[in-house]
Amino acid sequence: LTNDVIKNEDLEYIWHPCSQMKDYETLPLIPIKQGKGVWLEDFDGNRYIDAVSSWWVNLFGHANPRINAAVKAQVDTLEHVIFAGFTHEPAVRLAKRLVALTPEGLTKLFFADNGSSAIEVAIKMSFHYFKNRGSLKPLVISLENSYHGETLGALSVGDVALYKETYKEILIRSVQVKSPALVSEDAALSDLEATLKRQAHEVCCMIIEPLIQCAGNMQMYSPSYITKAKALCEAYNVHLIADEIAVGFGRTGTLFACEQAGITPDFMCLSKGLTGGYLPLSVVLTSDDVYNAFYCDYSEGKSFLHSHSYTGNPIACAVANAVLDIFESDDVIENNRAKSAQMAKELERFKALENVENIRQCGMVAAFDISGYEPSERVGLNVYRYGLDNGVLLRPLGHTVYFMPPYTINEAEMKKMFDTAYEAVKRLVR
Ligand SMILES: Cc1ncc(COP(=O)(O)O)c(C=O)c1O
């Protein structure tokens, strides 16, 4: 098999995500044969550093031996079982561990099977909580420039026009407030407070991506906004949903981003790194208060009847447990400090490039914007192509180049990742 054989068959049958399929007439579609550590290898033997952790999911490298062993052990024991009326050990163990690791007060865990479905669960639970308590609050607050997924509920509360605009007639109601990543923290908080003052009576929850608006071009903001926003939400009887789907599991320098704000959200959504990039799984953690609003005799009609066929899949749970084992045994958060210091150092040289602005970093995520081009010029694609030709999978968001590699990246690989990006961007200087 060669790249061409796979590619041609692929394009005959498959419709890829987040793609204009016609682009594949000129853009390379890359068939990956195998992965090892931070490296992906195609059928022609070309190798690429996965600088985007395959859409921000991979933590400990591809084909990680410890995670592989967990999959193999679980698959011979129990591959899947219905999760209503039944349970299994990997799910129970995982739930207990996540409750212990997440901020105090998050005591109950609901399983789903991907990031967007976790967002749907959290929004529905919040709305339903208030309904069970006797008030109808159908509105959700979110930040401008936010992204929470692509299913209709998740898309409704996001604010990236590229994904949302087309579907506006069929979305649920949401209101966007100023993002602390794009205006001053004070201005963002004033806008939130004014919105709450005006509309809190019909708002069930506010949803945020703590510290980094990832799909919104890796825009970063300070934890103090989160602390203050949580206090405002509490004052106005509105839930706070922390969408840690992209930032959870160490990306921002702490295991969970909310830790830096010292808050306990009413709901915390986790996915992506939860399984180290192996399998689709997500969870929503919440409080006893929320749980108790649903806990009553069935005849009262207050149950949360949401479900997905693959809820709490045992293999995915076993993998998530293996991921937590690695966090426990390898002092990952501490070791990442040296890696994020190297990232900071590597970023320095970009300051000298006249077409680079807004260089930023939060933990294991670094980014900058390429300036001086119209969006229609799609210069991100030049960087993408140059990266692939030189062995690095960089996948800019518009004109934002970012780095979010697996934590197992070594010094030389890190250097190659930044060297390649530097050359790619330097070549764009007019
Ligand atoms: C912050 C955030 N929330 C939700 C999602 C949606 O997750 P999924 O793609 O698994 O549906 C994403 C995906 O990128 C995300 O970054």
Which characteristics define this entry?
single chain, 430 residues, 7-stranded mixed β-sheet, binds pyridoxal-5'-phosphate, alpha/beta
> What strand order characterises the main sheet?
4-12-11-10-7-5-6
Query: What count of helical segments does DSSP give?
Result: 15
User: What's the count of strands?
Assistant: 16
- If you average the pLDDT, what whole number results? 97
Distinct bound molecules:
pyridoxal-5'-phosphate
Overall 3D shape = globular
Q: Give the biggest beta sheet.
A: 7 strands, mixed
Question: What structural class do the secondary elements suggest?
Answer: alpha/beta
Ranges where pLDDT stays below 50 over 5 or more residues in a row are none
Beta-strand fraction estimate: 15-25%
Helix content: 25-40%
Question: What is the C-alpha radius of gyration, as a whole number of Å?
Answer: 22 Å
Straight-line N-to-C gap: 41 Å
Annotate the secondary structure layout.
Layout: H1 3-13, E1 32-36, E2 39-42, E3 47-50, H2 53-56, H3 65-75, H4 89-101, E4 108-112, H5 115-132, E5 139-143, H6 152-157, H7 161-164, E6 174-177, H8 185-199, E7 203-208, E8 212-213, E9 219-220, H9 223-235, E10 239-243, H10 258-261, E11 267-270, E12 282-286, H11 288-292, H12 314-330, H13 332-348, E13 356-362, E14 365-370, H14 379-389, E15 392-393, E16 400-403, H15 411-426
Parallel strand pairs: 3-15, 5-6, 5-7, 7-10, 10-11
Antiparallel strand pairs: 1-2, 2-3, 4-12, 8-9, 11-12, 13-14, 14-16
Helix pairs in contact: 3-12, 4-12, 8-9, 13-15, 14-15
The structure holds pyridoxal-5'-phosphate (PLP).
